[in-house]
Design goal:
Layout (H helix, E strand, L loop, with lengths): L9 E7 L14 H11 L4 E9 L3 H11 L8 E13 L4 E7 L7 H10 L2 E4 L2 E4 L2 H11 L6 H34 L3 H5 L3
Parallel strand pairs: 1-2, 2-3
Antiparallel strand pairs: 3-4, 5-6
Helix pairs in contact: 4-5
């Protein structure tokens, strides 16, 4: 017999961080310091964060580096949330697909990158993979006036999602199924009991 009731824990499965590829609204002199202080000061305390970014894991990896230096002490679980925009219109904006990946496997980043690389489409007479380098390359190819790598990556991301549905939607459903089979978040629930 249990002698206690339910325990509620705060999870934030969709939280962007400074440097997110699209719609980066983190400004000021120290965006990372402000971001981390805000998350650390939330009540109730956040115990799990899905670091969200479009198509890449850069901000997730930066949050992990900051965690290793002692930041986010109350956060017990940090996992990547890869956001993919589809060119399917919704009431406001577009339909987004999210890949929530369990960090349980020490090799999860390499596996996630391998899977994302399989998302491909043709544009400008060339093939582009869902990688940081190819998003930059696509951005520069789509708009040759862009010279800044970060701006090129953001522009490439907007081009990628505009083509995503037509190019790889059937493969995307398979990808989501594979990710769900390989990386399941519910296993982490047991570790918090």
């Amino acid at each position: 017999m249990l002698n206690r009731g339910s325990e509620w824990r705060r999870w934030e499965p969709h939280i962007h961080a400074p440097g997110t590829v699209l719609n980066n609204q983190f400004g000021g002199g120290d965006p990372w310091g402000n971001y981390l202080a805000t998350v650390e000061g939330l009540t109730p305390k956040v115990e799990a964060i899905g670091v969200t970014d479009y198509y890449v894991t850069d901000t997730y990896e930066e949050v992990l580096r900051r965690k290793d230096t002692g930041r986010l002490p109350d956060v017990k679980l940090i996992f990547p949330n890869i956001e993919l925009r589809l060119d399917i219109a919704a009431k406001s904006g577009f339909v987004n697909l999210h890949l929530l990946v369990s960090p349980e496997d020490a090799n999860h980043l390499a596996e996630l990158r391998r899977i994302l690389t399989r998302l491909q489409f043709l544009a400008h007479g060339d093939r582009f993979d869902c990688t940081r380098d190819d998003l930059v390359r696509l951005g520069k190819r789509s708009d040759p006036s862009i010279t800044d790598e970060r701006a090129a990556m953001a522009h490439g991301a907007t081009q990628f999602w505009e083509s995503l549905k037509a190019a790889i939607l059937p493969a995307l459903f398979l990808l989501v199924s594979l990710v769900e089979l390989r990386y399941r978040l519910p296993r982490h629930l047991k570790s918090y009991q």
